[in-house]
Amino acid sequence: MKKAIVVVVSLGLVISALYFIGMGIASAPTEPIPETPLLIDTTEPAQLEQQTWKWLETVDSQGGVVTPKVPGAFSLLFEGESVRISTDCNMGTATYTSTDRQLTLGPIGSTKMFCEGAQESVFFEMLRNVASYHINDDGQLILYFAFDEGSMILE
Hints:
Elements: H1 2-23, H2 45-48, E1 53-60, E2 65-66, E3 75-79, E4 82-86, E5 91-99, E6 102-105, E7 109-110, H3 120-128, E8 130-135, E9 141-145, E10 150-154
Antiparallel strand pairs: 1-2, 1-3, 1-10, 3-4, 4-5, 5-6, 5-7, 8-9, 9-10
């Protein structure tokens, strides 16, 4: 009796499948699916190297804003595989790699002069948290922090 029920149910499934295929419901599409154009990011490291980038402001994920106390004192200059860093007190350098808008800076080496009230340590810490970048339509360099913690704007 159980074998008869299994045979009848199996036969019913086969007949249903054949019916749907015949109706075109379960058949493969006969027209080719148009390809979706692949959006390719054309931002290359060479664009980073086109100018000296001056820090304008940093916006954190909570909406807080940090700006340089000395406008124009903080800058980045990407050259080859290194970036030269200027602050309101010392000069620094680091290696960097850039692939598909991902940006990784190596350890920052800097001179060690002491300057009262300098924002240098804050600036260096922000740079250590950079994970990616974008150059917007206004020509500004946006450095994004890891984990959507904020961004730095340079021009």
